Amino acid sequence: MCIRDRPYTPFLQAALDYGFVNKPRDADLLIRRMRGVKRVAAGGIEYSFVTKIVSHYLSSPKPSLSSDEKTLLIRGRKRALNIPLLPDGTTYIHYYPAETFRILPFWKVSSGLFSPEIIQDKLVLMGMTGEIFHDVHSTPLGAIPGVLLHSNSIRMMLSKDFITPVAQGVNLAFMIFFAMLGGWAAYRKPVWRGFTFVIGEALAFGGVSFLLSLKNYYGDFFSPLILIPSVYLLVILHKHITLIIETGELRKLALTDELTGLFTYRYFLLTLENEMNKASRYQNDLSLIIFDVDHFKTINDTYGHDQGNTVLKQISRILQQTHRKVDGLSRYGGDEFCIILPYTDESGALNFANRLKEEVEKMVFEMKGKTFKVTLSIGVADFRKTPAHTVQEFFECADEALYKAKKGGRNQICTWKASS
Fold first, then answer.
1. Contacts with 151 (C-beta within 8 Å, 6 or more apart), sequence order
2. How would you classify the pairing of strands 217-218 and 164-165?
3. What residues have CB less than 8 Å from 358, skipping those under 6 apart?
C-alpha cells in the first residue's frame, strides 16, 4: 500500500527499507529493462526495490548508494558494484531460465513442509505468481510474474552479468554492410550462386550475432536477417524489370525506323505476309500503298539533308495521325513509304491515298527565308485484283503502280491494273 509514492506508515516503520518497483515498457509493451534509479523533483534521487535489496545484501546494515548519468554505484563491505546505465537511466535485464531459481509454494512454507537449509544464506523474495493477482508482465520470453522479474534483475546485478547494448551506429553499419553484400551478390552473381551467397551471408551474420549474444551484447540481430534476403530479392526484381524494359527498347529499335518512328522494312514484310494469309483464308479485302516524295533528291541538294529529314518526319506525323490501328506503316527506305490497309478494297485505299496526298500538299516548309511544298507519287494495289501469291509478288504490283505514277508526271495516284 502506498500513499503519495511512499509506503503506508506502519509498513514503513516495520520494513528495513523500500523502493519503487515500476519497470519501463518498450514500444511493443514488453519489459526488457529495469530502472535502478530515477531522478525526482528538486534534484533528488530514488532507488528501486531491486537496488535496495542488492545494496543491503552487500552493505548490511547500512547501504551506500550513489549514481551519475552513466553508472549506479553500490558500495559493499567487500566489493562494489558498478551498474552501467543507458542514457535514460535504465539497464537491460538479463533473463535466466526459470529453473535457475528455486520456487517454493507458499502453502509449503506456511505449513513448515520444507527444509530450512533450502533458503539458508540466500536472498528470498515472496510474491504472487498467479495471473489473477495482476502481477504478471509481458517480456520477450513470455509472461513472467513480478517476483521473477525482480529475481532476474538481482541475479544479474550480483553476478555482474550485464547486457551491453550495441550502439545504434554499429547496428546501422552492420545492416548497411550486409545489405550491400546481398545487393552485390544479386547484381554480380548468377541467380543460384547469388542465392547461395546470400544464404551463407545470413548464416554468417547469425553466427556473429550468436557469438555477440554469448558475450551479453544486445542489438538488433533480426532486422538484418530480414533485410539481407529482402535486398537480394528487390535487386533481382529490379534486374528483371530493367531487362524487360531494355528488351522492349531493343525490340522497338529493331522494329522501328529511328528517324520517323515507323516500322522498318523487315517488320513490314512480316506483317504483310501475315495479313495476306488472313486475307486468303477469310476472303478479306487487303490493299497496299507505296509512295515516295517527288524530287526528294533536289530538296536534299537545295536545302540540305536536315531539311530533307524534316520533310520525312512531317509526312510520318501525318501518317500516324490519319491511319487506323490495324494499318501497318513502314519506311521502305530513303523517301519511300509503305502502308498496309487490312479490310480495305481498292476504293477505300484510293480514298486514304487522296486524303494523305491532300494533307501533305497543305504543308509549307521554310529554309533560309525560302518556302517550298512537296508532292507525292502514290501506287495502290488491291490484293484480290492481283495475281500475287507471295509477299514479293504483291509488293511488286504496288511498286509497278508507283512507277506508273512517277512515269506519268508524278504528283498523282495510280492503281495496279492487269495491263500495267
1. 101, 125
2. parallel
3. none
Distance between CA atoms of residues 334 and 144, nearest Å: 85
Dihedral angle computed from the Cα positions of residues 103, 106, 109 and 113, in that order, rounded to the nearest 10 degrees:
-80
Cα 356 to Cα 230: distance, rounded to the nearest angstrom = 55
CA neighbor of 37 nearest in space, from 164, 153, 159, 148: 153
* Residue 222 C-alpha from the chain's centroid: 19
Whether the predicted model's global pTM rises above the 0.70 cut: no
Angstrom CA distances, 391 to 292, 336, 386, stand at: 20, 17, 12
Cell of 327: 494499318
HSE-up (13 A, CA, CB side) for residue 94:
19
The percent of the chain in helix, strand and coil, each rounded to the nearest 5, is 50, 20, 30
- How many CB atoms lie under 10 A from the CB of residue 74? 27
Are the C-beta atoms of residues 288 and 380 closer than 8 Å to each other?
A: yes
Over the stretch 166-221, which tens digit does the pLDDT of each residue have? 888 888 888 888 888 888 888 888 888 888 888 888 888 888 888 888 888 888 77
Alpha carbon 264 to its chain centroid, in Å, reads 38
CA-based diameter of the chain, in Å?
129
Q: Is 62 helix (H, G, I), strand (E, B) or coil?
A: coil
Question: Coil, helix or strand for 67?
Answer: strand
160 Rama class: left (phi>0) / alpha (psi -120 to 50) / beta: left
